[in-house]
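Support request, please re-run this one:
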Amino acid sequence: MAPIIPLLLICLVPIVAGAEEDAPAVPTFQEGDVLGLDQIEKLRPYLPQQFWSNRDFFFYEGMRMEIGPSFRDYAPADVYLEATKRYAEQVRLGPDNGLEDYRAGQPFPMEDIECLEDPEAGVKIAWNFVRRWEGAGGRARFYYSYWDRGEELPLYYQGHSAGVSLAFRPEPQYDEHDGDLFRGEKRYVASGPEVEAPFDARGIALLSYRYKSSYGSPKTAKNDDTWVYVPSLRRVRRISSAQRTDSISGTDFTFDDLFSFNGVVPQYEWSCHEERDIIAPINSTIRGYPYQKGRNFGPYGLSFADDRWELRKAVRIRFDPLNPNHPYQYKDIWIDKQTLEPLYSFAYDRKGELWKIIWHAHRWSDEDFEEYEGWENVPEPRDLAVVSDIIVNVQTGTGNRIEFFDRRGTPLKSKGKIRRFIDVGRLTRGR
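Re-run finished. Output below.
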């Protein structure tokens, strides 16, 4: 899981009208090309229209975009693929878009889903997205910055975060407990960050649980539990689950915007709208925080243009919130068909106007990622991990960026360490 903390403030260029354009039979770029600003027209057929309409913000003079291989194989770890073959036939959609009889792996094999023909395609892909392969959780150091018209504001957060997958594990060593890490486990993930800087925020720590029951009907589901330790108060406070759709510390992100969608599937209606080839920064060659703080994110601080981009098979799904008080009328999410990783998303306000653009950088665990080692029954992690989220508010010209380029899903070393991590008491222990 990624750090659950604020990100950066951005500025946006005036929106330019853009139209969908059919992709040519053969792209006018190829692997090994390096594109500058004067060549970005080649990308237009392979970008979402909303992104292209705001291209002046993302593409800039001096950018050097490396074109990587098209449709490279980023298949997940064998243990995940084997679990899909073993359990997918028993999985079904329950009432209110819930997921029933799920054990591990991909709930609904993508090759069996017809986006435009199957009325349940949207929710099936949403569940595949939630249950995509991410290793055993996630650990990273993060830097969360705020930007305004190309200037990084003095407000920032820096620290470390961890997450643990407690249920639905595909590794054979958990078969005895039906995929649970601990017998009778009711949670399926625990995660949370701790802030190390700036000085006046140092020591803030969060711990969040999401429960297995969230896979069922909203009528019976248990809401997330989240606790935060506030050093100035020397006490732990509980955060209401309703705050997941509120802005985080005055930023443009909400908790549920991380990874484009970090919410609860049955709280939305889902639909599938199109499939096509999309180009995106899918396997970064340039590291950001914590490896280097001076990575070039463009003049506005919100661009991955100066990196490697690859052509991918993608699908666009849409959610419509069931909660009438949700800040979005709907959100469109472009998802990589093989890995189920998010590529771009576009959130619309209650008037139906484009409000926010969210996009991501990724890193492949099998390439120049020395910290990401295998573990029992997972000799090769084969994880295409999101390592940076950027959000742009196109209505206010603000935005945020979070970097966690050392993210990896390697599990904690022992069950004892996991028990200590998921214990709410650790938030105050030793303070």
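The domain at 34-155+258-413 is CATH 2.50.20 (outer membrane lipoprotein receptor (LolB), chain A). Residues 78-87 form the longest helix (10 residues).
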